[in-house]
Amino acid sequence: MPLSTKPTQHCKPLTLGVGGGLPCFITIGLAVRHFISFDIVIMATVLDIKLKRATKVYKEGEVVAGTVVIESKGECSHQGVTLTADGSVSLQLSSKSVGVFEAFYNSVKPIQLLSQVLEIAKPGKFPSGKTEIPFEIPLKAKGNKKLYESYHGVYISIQYSLVADMKRGMLSKDLRKDLEFLVDFNHGDKLKPQPLDFTLTPENLQNAKSKSNIPKFKINGKIDSLLCNITDPFTGQITIESCSNPIKSMELQLLRVETCGCAEGYAKDATEIQNIQIAEGDVAHHIAIPLYMVFPRLFTAPTLTTNNFKIEFEINLVVVFKGDMVLTENFPIKVTRV
Amino acid sequence: MHAHYDYSFNLSSTFRKPRQRNYAFEKSKLTSDRKNTTSHPLGDLVKPTIKAITQKKPVTKRKPSTTPNSDPLGGGTDPLSMITSSHDPLSVLAVGGNESGSFSKARSSSIEQKADRETGIPLWSDLKSNILAKYTTSEKLSITTSFLSSRGGDVVKTVRQSPATVSDKMKNRLEQLDDFEEGSVKEMLNLSQQDYVKRIDELNKALITAWDQDQKVKALKIAIQCAKMLADTSVMQFYPSKFVLVTEILDTFGKLVYNRIFEKSTYKPAGSTKSVQLPADFTPDQVPESAKETCRNWFFKISSVRELIPRFYVEAAILKCYSFFKPSEMSDALSRLAVMVRGIGNPLIAAYSRCYLCRVGIIINPRQKDYIKKCFGDTLLTYHQIQSPSVTQGVTKQNISMSVYLTLYSPAVDWILMCMFDDCDDVLFDDILKQVNQSANSALLLNGILRSAKPQSIAKKAVIFIVLIRECEDTGFPKRILYNSLGSRLSLADPPESDKLKILNEVWKFITKLKEPSEYVACAETWIEYVMKHFGKKEMNTVLSDIIKHLLPDRAFEEFYPNLLTIMAKILDHVHNYALLFSLEKFMSFVDLFQKDSIKIKAAKIIVEAFCKYQLESVNDPVVISTVMYMCKTLHDSVNALSLDDEKRSVSQLINQFIHKVDYGSNFEQQLNFYVDSRANFTNLDPVMTELVQCVNNLSITTRKVVRGNHSPKTSAFVRACSAYCFITIPSLDNTFIQLNLYLLSAQVSLLNRCLSQAEALFKAGIAALLETPSTMTVDGKAKSSEGFVVQYIQNFLSSLVIVPDNPDQGVLILFKGLLNVIRGYQFDSGETVRVKLYLAVLSSLSAISQEKYLYHVDRVESNDTLYGHDAKFLGEVEKLSVTVVDEILNHLKTLTEGFENLKVQSHVSLLTFEHIVAYADLADEAMFQLAKNLWSLSQKHSYADSKQVTKVMTLLKRKAESNEHASKLMKKING
């Protein structure tokens, strides 16, 4: 705590002031409040949650084990400590697809996946110093729901967290600490790679504006599998066989396609997650350039289709020619976790 | 006062009578029985230490096993290298202290790499300084970064503690990112090269500071921005240097990341509950999950870097962290990164990227080679890129020639090949050669091979290489560079005997055709070594004459003095037969090329130094001597009043060494002539003059030894000549003290050789020189009073004078009287006591002179004892002298009457004199006895006598009293 040393000096007169008489408290209300906030810092009880597993990643059915840590300088009385495990899918409608107002009002109710409350300590006192209270929470979805994989998207996010609450008396604020943990969703079945060979030429361009100033090129490529394990990188290779214009850059773009269903129909939006350059400058021809992209954690999850929402992924191969002409090839992929 | 009266009667009867002595008898009495000893008293002490040393030796000298890979000092995966790289105390310091920037870093890494050297792993630091020196630019450079604040002190935001949630943490980090990106990314334009280097150093410091303040994201950002600089080839000539500078920062970053994770990983050894630090040779399964997680996070973060080049470099920088995972992950990563470079279009950037990968890889995983092969293979495959229009356009735009552009590749290509050739056998070598030939027979790659492969492999195939060089495609990479590389390799390893001449012929055919003197000199500089090493007189002469022929027109040589000096140094390194070398007709003409004075001196110094170093035996070849003499003369003439002392000393030393090497054997006269010549040539250097006098004295003594003391008329004339040489030479010295010593020495030598008049002249000169002695002398650079020296010198002189026979043409003891006059007149700084001591020494000598038979003689020289035969008249002279001296002493005592200090001195001096009388005077003589008694009472009068001195004197008296009745009488008188 950066403020821990200095305030100690300020704190003495303060406690006297508060204890000495109420009038004083009122007249210098602002200043005192300022001091009181310090007071909390010093007298401070710190509430923390520590997980045994360093990765903080769990699967459904596993037990989240850890400790709730209470650290206080003096004795600390409280009205009970609880620990809540929460998990929910929050959905938001894109203003692009349904309009600003509707987006604001119609945000869909979050879907609760997990909710468990645990009493950590009954009302009482914690001794001065560090108190560690171990806990274990089995991960089990609510009702007949599944624990989907943690995912942070633009319109959809699936989040799990542990929240520790300490209720305290009149004078002190209640303490709260929350900690996100991650859930992996295992599909379990082994992957059968779905390789794809492709060739890009001006002839198989789709929405070119004018065919006249398109450079001549032939680009061969291979994607090792369109069915991807989330822990493995997306791989493949690409070879420039011929190209009349020099190439400026080649990139792999990872897109998420999020679909939210609601009463008024559904909204589908594709947004970029990340863009990875795989070639820079006018690369040599006839040599296979590797395609390689690691799926970023949290921002990717296994492809998911439910009644209410869908999370899907796509990859764009982007070739930028000198003169900023851009060639894009789209590959929908399916992400799973094995 | 009273005291005064007492003395007046005391000192009235001052005359001195020496005691008669029988030296042989005294000697026999003094000599105790001696027997041979079997054990040395210090033997026990000495022996064990010797033993300890001899025991230690094999330990320190034990060589690491020869196969590089099984060597315990090997690279990455084995234990010791982990220590060197992660626990290097210097690097820890560098990480800890913010101020220690890249310099200590560089140092520590070089130490680290030194450990690798023994394993044969190529050494990057060797290459590094070369690159920095070679690839420079005067163009303006620019840096794009947000971390170099032109706004002054960097306002470092304190990182908020323990953000509550992951998203909070992320927000915090994003804020950090925004902080850097909010328009603070600046392009610094128009930086000179020095500025640029300075800025990069600042970046390095900023990186370490950020890391220490726990701003990991900022540190990563700095690393990424640095790596980004390598994507910029706007000033191509500087690119290799930029690569060196920037990768240094990346190395720092890699080390920081690795060390942090390593420090944080603790594990519980089996059977123990306490966590301990990971051992240096940890295995992946010992690494705790949390460390792996941190590690993985780093790699995740880096894998999401958008741009290819920074992503490549930063991942390569922290590749070592893969050692926390399974071994296969590291090798996979190396291979993957090797292929990733294919995406870099600019061939220059790609080449250096591969170079960096190899550089990192060979340290962390020296056993893996496939990625290096891949790098090399890709280099070959993409070689044609260099000729692609986009590259050539860029090159012409920057106004550099294709050949200059190609040389920019050298360090990178060399390094990759060096890693390739590290630990490679002949088969692989041939294979690589074939690959290069087939895919792109380019001079650049061939040059890389020439510079990187082991010299032995090259030397074996030298003839093939020459053919390859001749035939390789000329893409603008100059062939002379190829020949140069070949030459420098051949100077390290010898080609087969049968090929030697063929190689020389082929190569020189090419070299001699080079028109541009600078190119010619560069080649000649490398190849001269080969010629000097393997060939004889004829070839050397030819090559030298070729060099002269090329450089003489238009006085071209004036521009290449440094190169010519190297050529000279190389010649002298290899040819140690100076008779042969100096007799080469072209060698001297080559030396004549050094016409500028300062250069001429340098050349002379090189020659003389080499001569002194390699000429182990003495020489008498007139050609050699006259050549070296000439060089020494050049050196000598370079010294003037403005020269530094050090320079003078080193030149003198060289010349002295040369003088010592010259030995005409039994031809003494020629030797003396040589010394005469030397004296004429080296007049300005005191040490040389001193040396010459010593040499001549030595020569004179050698002559005496040869004739066993029986000088023939011829030899006696010769030794007289030697004495004369000394007599003439000594006065030219600046330093009076050396003069004094040399006078005495030469006089003694002359006396030994029975050159009486010469000896007398030298003694006289010595006495005269004493008068001019300065009062201070410098010893080890500090000024010191010369009194001690003078006193010692006079005492030494006196004992020599004892045996010098008087010159019948002059009075008795003329030298002695002269010296006495000097003593009388000399200005002593620390007071009169010194003079009294000297007088006492004179009295001792006089006592010796008045003996019937002297204590020592010079062989075949009649001293005064035989000359005068103990004649009364002579003794009277001596006595007269003694009386004068005693009077002087007593007069001095008279002056010491008042004051505590004076009385103390008086007591001291009188005791000294008393002691002297007891030791040397005849106490049977009543006057002497009385004098002694009076002196004693004077010394005791004010009870200031030093008790120690009294005891000493009393012991002497007691000993005397045992054999001498007068002494015992005196003792009784005193005690009673």
Overall description:
The complex is a heterodimer of chains A (338) and B (976). With 338 residues, chain A is mainly beta. Chain A folds into three domains: 1-43, no CATH class; 47-184, Immunoglobulin-like (Sandwich), CATH 2.60.40; 196-336, Immunoglobulin-like (Sandwich). Chain A is built from five helices and 21 strands. Chain A has helices at 6-20, 22-27, 29-43, 95-98, 100-105, and strands at 45-51, 57-59, 63-72, 76-78, 81-91, 111-121, 124-126, 129-138, 151-152, 156-166, 175-184, 196-200, 217-223, 227-229, 234-243, 247-262, 265-280, 288-293, 304-305, 309-321, 326-336. Chain A is elongated and about 80 Å long. In chain A, 25% of the residues are buried. Chain B has a domain at 596-663. In chain B, 67% of the residues lie in helices and 2% in strands. In chain B, the strands form three sheets. Chain B has a two-stranded antiparallel sheet. Chain B has a two-stranded antiparallel sheet with strand order 3-4. Chain B has a two-stranded antiparallel sheet with strand order 5-6. Chain B starts with a helix and ends with a helix. The chains are: A mainly beta (338), B mainly alpha (976). At the A-B interface, β11, β17 and β18 of A face α12, α13 and α14 of B.
